[in-house]
Amino acid sequence: MSITVYRNTDRVRLQIHDVIFTIKPFTYKEKADITSSIRVESGEQIDDGLSAIQKLLKYSVKDVTGINYPDGTTFKLKFDKDNVLEEESIDELLNLEINQDLTSALYVFVRSIPSKLTNTDGEDLPHTKILPFQSMPKKK
After folding, report:
1. Would the CA dihedral through 12, 14, 19, 21 be positive or negative?
2. Which of 24, 43, 104, 111 has minimal Cβ neighbours within 10 Å of its Cβ?
3. pLDDT tens digits, residue range 5-35?
């Protein structure tokens, strides 16, 4: 059996219902930042879920298709000069009807990039699938 490793320049396409998200693999520092929102104090897990979700979106989502504004115009993500998702786009993604499915899938990506999306109990994530691999061209 062959095992696949993804470069930080690779992209994974995640389909939730009819919406397709292009996801970047998390770096070690990004994973550390996300998981820092979850800590154990006096044997009890304390998590700042909204902060973790904001970081999941900020670091991973690079493109999306299949979303429109109420007036029918196409939703487009906005990025800052460092190619990091801007707060306005994060806010809008947090208001999606499919937000729960998206964040559940992105939490899986913190552990690894799976071939199949399942929760911690091994059950398939509903309405969610990974599409065939898409590699980004190398910078010259």
Report:
1. negative
2. 43
3. 888 889 999 999 999 999 999 999 999 999 8
- Give Dmax over CA atoms of the chain in angstroms: 51
Give the DSSP H or E segment for 39: strand 38-41
Closest by Cα among 47, 48, 17, 49 to 126: 17
Query: What digits encode the pLDDT tens for the residues 70-123?
Result: 999 999 999 999 889 999 999 999 999 999 999 999 999 998 888 888 887 888
Residue 69, both tokens: 């504004």
d(CA 67, CA 75): 5
pLDDT per position as a tens digit, 45-72: 566 678 889 999 999 999 999 999 999 9
116 neighbors 130 (Cβ within 8 angstroms): yes
Classified as helix, coil or strand, 129 is: strand
- Residue pair 124/116 in contact (Cβ under 8 Å)? The answer is yes
Nearest alpha-carbon partner for 77 in 33, 22, 34, 130: 22
